[in-house]
Structure formats: structure tokens, C-alpha cells
């Protein structure tokens, strides 16, 4: 089931976080491209996604940003299922939501297979 679980990180600094530097970061930290997706876009695209996900950010210096600390759990269709606000929170609800999504997907997959 975990092979269907992925993590997406989106840059809010597209000038500094180029696709090349993001790939280098992923490689340096040995993050599997099968599980970890790094997204880069135009400032307008990033802002649009941030608004949709409820993430706020602003540039505070030439190289730094202040931003919301939100972990958003989406289902396979992109529907928000849970949002963890703040990094110092107990991750149990986030983990439970992910487990439920994986379990539901796994059951749906098997039910679908048996129909054929």
C-alpha cells in the first residue's frame, strides 16, 4: 500500500529553487523520486496553489521567506482530506488520514479487480 503514498514539496522561491537545485536537494538527501515530487512553477502558479491550499507566505529578505507551516493531506483526486496546522502538532491525525486513504484505495482496487 505504501507504494501509492507520495509527498509533494512546492517551492515558494522559484528563482532560487530551480528544477536543477531541487533535484540536487532530493539526491543529496536520498529522497526517492518515486515517493518525493518537487514542484516548481511561475510566481503566479505558486501563489494560486498557495491560495487553494491556504498557505500564506511573504519574502522577508533577499533569501528568506516567512510561511505557514501546514501539512495538507489530499486524496487521489486532489480533494483536501486533512490539514495539520503547525509542525509542533501531534501527527497522529495526519497519519491516520493517510492510512485511511491508502486502505480505501486498496479496498477499491481489489473490489474493482474482482468485477472483471
Description:
The strands form three sheets. A two-stranded parallel ribbon has the order 1-2. The protein is globular, with a radius of gyration of 17 Å. The longest helix has 24 residues. The protein has one domain: Glutaredoxin. The C terminus is likely disordered. By secondary structure, the protein is of the alpha+beta class. Helix content is 39%, strand content 22%. The protein is built from three helices and six strands, in the order βαβαββββα.
Topology:
Blueprint: E1 7-10, H1 19-28, E2 36-39, H2 43-53, E3 57-59, E4 65-67, E5 70-74, E6 80-85, H3 92-115
Parallel strand pairs: 1-2
Antiparallel strand pairs: 3-4, 5-6
Brief rundown of the structure:
39% of the residues lie in helices and 22% in strands.
Reported CATH architecture:
3-Layer(aba) Sandwich
How many alpha or pi helices?
3
Q: What's the overall average pLDDT, rounded?
A: 89
Which structural class should the secondary elements be placed in?
alpha+beta
Helicity, as a percent range: 25-40%
| Cα distance spanning the termini | 21 Å
Order of helices and strands: EHEHEEEEH
Low-pLDDT runs of 5+ residues are 112-116
CATH fold-type name? Glutaredoxin
> How many DSSP-defined strands?
6
Strand content: 15-25%
Domain count, please report it: 1
What is the CATH C level class, in words? Answer: Alpha Beta
Amino acid at each position: 500500500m505504501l507504494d501509492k503514498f507520495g509527498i509533494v514539496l512546492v517551492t515558494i522561491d522559484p528563482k532560487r529553487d530551480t528544477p536543477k537545485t531541487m533535484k540536487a536537494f532530493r539526491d543529496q538527501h536520498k529522497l526517492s523520486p518515486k515517493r518525493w515530487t518537487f514542484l516548481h512553477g511561475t510566481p503566479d502558479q505558486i501563489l494560486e496553489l498557495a491560495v487553494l491550499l491556504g498557505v500564506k507566505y511573504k519574502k522577508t529578505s533577499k533569501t528568506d521567506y516567512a510561511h505557514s507551516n501546514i501539512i495538507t493531506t489530499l486524496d487521489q483526486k486532489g480533494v483536501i482530506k486533512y490539514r495539520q496546522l503547525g509542525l509542533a502538532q501531534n501527527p497522529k491525525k495526519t497519519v491516520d488520514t493517510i492510512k485511511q486513504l491508502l486502505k480505501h484505495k486498496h479496498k477499491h482496487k481489489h473490489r474493482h479487480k474482482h468485477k472483471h
